[in-house]
Amino acid sequence: MRNTLKIELKKAIHNKYFLITFAIAIFIALWSSVHTFQYMNRIQQYLLLIGNNKNPNHSADSLYNNWMGGQFGSFPTDLYYFILPLIAAFPYGWSYFQERKNGYSKNVICRCGRKNYVLSKYICTFIIGGITVLLPLIMNYIIVACFVPARMPDPCCNIHYAVFGDCMWSNLFYTNPLLYDVCYMILTFVFGGLWATISMMASYFLKNKFAVLLVPYILLIIFHYGIHSLFEWRIYLEASPINYVRGVMVDNISKEWLVFLELFILFIFGFGISCYRGIKDDVY
Amino acid sequence: MMFIKLIRYDLRNGLLRCWKKFLISFCMFTVFCFDLYLNWVNCRLNPADLSLGDYTIFLFRGMREYIPDSSQPFIFPILWMLFYILIFYIVLYYPFQDLNGFGKNILVNSRKRSLWWLSKCVWIIFSVITYFALAWAAAIIFSLTTGTNLSLQINKLQLMMLGVRDVEMVLPIKNFVGLAIILPPLVAISMCLMQLTISLFVKPLYSFLFSISVLLISAYYKSELLLGNYAMLIRLDIWSENGLKSINGIYFSIILGLVSIVIGCIYFCRTDIMNKE
Amino acid sequence: MTSIKIDNVTKTIKNNTVLENINITLKSGVIIGLRGENGSGKTMLMRLISGLIKPTKGKVYINEKELGKDISFPESIGLLIENPAFLDDFSGFKNLQILASVKNCTTNEKIKNTIKAVGLDPEDKKKYKKYSLGMKQRLGIAAALMESPDIILLDEPTNALDSKGIEMVKNLLQKEKGRGALIVISCHDLSILQSLSDEIYLIENGKIVNHINTEKGEDAV
Description:
CATH topology of the largest domain in chain C: Rossmann fold
Structural class of chain C: alpha/beta
Largest sheet of chain A: none
Shape of chain C: globular
Mean pLDDT of chain A: 91
Distance between the termini of chain A: 22 Å
CATH class of the largest domain in chain C: Alpha Beta
CATH superfamily of the largest domain in chain C: P-loop containing nucleotide triphosphate hydrolases
Strand content of chain C: 25-35%
Largest sheet of chain C: 7 strands, mixed
Low-confidence stretches of chain A: none
Oligomer: heterotrimer
Number of domains of chain C: 2
Number of domains of chain A: 1
Strand order of the largest sheet of chain C: 6-7-8-3-9-10-11
């Protein structure tokens, strides 16, 4: 299986979808950095204007609320998280569908077996989906850290961070914000990876590549709509991954149990159905 | 004559055969109407006071202008975005499925590439009109089912809930109806044509991504240069003095649509047609 | 010494019986031809032998090991079933290299020789998506032969090939037979089947209706 996994990773990294999608994600992350830089510039100019007589409110601006995962009110950041499921799925989520459809999977399966093929494909899709969404975040973090000081967040200024007392991991944010950001990056990686594998699962039910990549996303948007509009009077927790992978409270409070439950469900669907059908089904 | 045949072929294969997608959209529109109904129930208001105009404005309202603020995150107008994302998805696949499949034979038999292209553009227009007709139908059926009246007068409470500041401004119904019927579909047609043209140059999945990005940026920034703004009724000058001029929206949509058609036609007539996405 | 035994196999897909009561025993060093109309079950039979599909009833034994129970796939098999399928963005040689790296039982030299043997250029950097139909078919045959497998399944290998290509296929298969491989091919052209095959099975509606031993020139059934 190590062989097949190496081959899959090589195929994944050398394909055009990965390169284009990754480039788009990097571009958005860079755009967000520039946006933050311009904002910080304005703040600096303002501080110069007000001189020493007024409270500069330094705590309001820190690395931890100016990188993409901790920011709000920035269009590139909002765009990135809105299309994050697509960024995760586009690079390699289509591959399993395409290989089954054009018959390439036959060539590989008869050489390595169904289980090895499906498992390698699953692991590779997960890894590629995860790193495509993670690396731009890391890049953005490093760039923003170059010009925004990593001031310790002050709980009195929580309105500037949108991390409130009952938010997920909020005590970590005010005690070890770097670890908090790392945790959210890992969460984003895991979600991105699991989401890419949903496309793999969808290939058993849908008939074309566009549907395999886009129908799960549209269903996610419908789910988001359900949580935030249809049932907003009933549900006060953040259940939509589009919001809870961000390290800020956009709308509702996120809770660990709900986040992990949803990730677990994604894993069961993605892994369970892909592997079950991949191993059991006939190969045509 | 050949052009009419092509249009008929596209309407049969791209519209009638895709009835499931339109059915799902119709169900979604019904859910949207139910959303408004539920909002009123939860606010302890009488949903029987709602009218067809209320349901329509709810579907096409969009969101008020967002002013970036360090304490106020951007909450995108999910219903409005979902409404347009669905139509972008519906019209995405068919032209390429056709070109890579049976449509190649049709293209060759038609003897003129421009006819094929124009036929696809007409198909998009019909698809969007059908989509919006279904939205109106869903609103009408829901109104009838829930016993609300079919008038297009908008309830002042509804306007307040939508954040319109000057609710005393009496809106001539004909203005509202005209705009609600014309502008959102026109913007949608224009954006779908733009998506189709862009997908000649980049993969269709990325043109879909671009369309979504345009929607999001239009929601984010209130600007005359961002087409999506004109699809949000709440941002138009019918509600406030600072609103965007509706007539500009009409011109912009028409011009963008025509430019997309022309650029697409020129490129399609010159490009090699190989099996690709 | 390779053997394939198909023991009273029936395959049903969505209430359609595509193969019915198939009983065949095959030994290595022969070329078996499958003949039948479109939709008769030739390709299904090949899929069955390769392990890609499982029988609804009956068993398939490869070297006395039950397929689907003792082994999932024959240990040494090369196949070309239906249309050849490769990765669009890689060259022919690169495609075969990627496939070969799964089992790592062949060398780059051997791959290049096989590509040359099917009439393609191993140094050609052209991507697979630019190949003509005939070139794709040749590459598909090369993929089936490059690892010198014990079992070779070729579904209509002469599709899209010119007369030189057909001669090439014949020569290659004779060589593989000489090596001791068990070869199963299907073809619509009776003359090719008769010139190549040691035995021909005639399939109709999923059943074997006739078995011709071409060496003896007589019907065995």
